[in-house]
Amino acid sequence: EFKMTDPDEVARRWGERKSKPNMNYDKLSRALRYYYDKNIMTKVHGKRYAYKFDFHGIAQALQPHPPESSLYKYPSDLPYMGSYHAHPQKMNFVAPHPPALPVTSSSFFAAPNPYWNSPTGGIYPNTRLPTSHMPSHLGTYY
């Protein structure tokens, strides 16, 4: 745990280091949120200008972690790209199709289904088509 005896001087030096000439303690305290989020340091509750380092968090921050966004940053880093252009006949990105089912005309177009041959149509069996003696709503001009 440590306490800043001159927070304005600390902020000024922090600003010099970060090339921010207008740095003050208010801005510095906002900038320290990064270190809070990474569990590198914490503010001591109830004490003004008092902070504490979290050595477990520092050890975690020092561990080398490959950045996720740059894991495959360039296409040449992709595992399939190197051999794709050199040997395209060896690469198969599509799963093989199952063998086609044998279709014979006698079994596929076998006896007609009564659905298609019914006089009422099958989909809406109780509907009737309008007959010619019904009046038209369009009038005589059409």
Automatic annotation (TrEMBL):
Domain ETS: 1-54
Cellular component per GO, a single term: nucleus
UniProt main location, coarse: nucleus
Subcellular location as annotated: Nucleus
MF-aspect GO terms: DNA-binding transcription factor activity; sequence-specific DNA binding
Annotated InterPro entries: Ets_dom, ETS_fam, WH-like_DNA-bd_sf, WH_DNA-bd_sf
DNA-binding among keywords: yes
A Pfam family that the UniProt record links to this protein: Ets
Protein name: Transcriptional regulator ERG isoform 1
Stated family: Belongs to the ETS family.
Keywords on record: DNA-binding, Nucleus
PANTHER family to which the protein is assigned, alphabetical: DNA-BINDING PROTEIN D-ETS-3, ETS
Gene expressing this chain: ERG
Record GO biological process: regulation of transcription by RNA polymerase II
